[in-house]
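User: Predict structure, ligand FE2/S2 (inorganic) cluster.
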Amino acid sequence: MSETKHSSLPGVPLSREAANGITRRDFLNEITQGALGIAGLGSVAVTYQFFSPNVLFGNPDLYPVHSVTFLQDQQVYIVRMLEGFYAVSAVCTHLGCITQWKPDADMIACPCHGSKFKADGTKMEGPAPRPLPHFAISLTADGELLVDKLQNIKPGQVLKV
Ligand code: FES
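Assistant: Predicted complex:
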């Protein structure tokens, strides 16, 4: 701003930026607005991914038989047993903490108040009022695992691959 004031004074030369029609302040404003725009688009993309009910989890061969895979960004466990696949919510049914798979103890544990669940979501102990819900899981036409986090299904239903 001081540069533009100087430019109106007789005998005071314009700064190089002012002489080119853009001031340092204008330049920094443009950079700031661009950075905020990029950050905003990134936030929208992450939010959409988080709340999107249908999530692709890749090729079934990525998951070994007898494995529990925690997908933190989707808060879902993909469980592969000999019989097939199922998807279990990682959100504790007590107060919504994110549970953790404990492979050494072969169970899912909640760090907040101590609820414990089997890999199939069945409650073993603790204050959680319900088992961990199962989500609908299917294969796309391309052969990728697809989980619908808006559609709960009864435990025991597996996707045979
Ligand atoms: S939130 Fe999991 S036991 Fe309380």
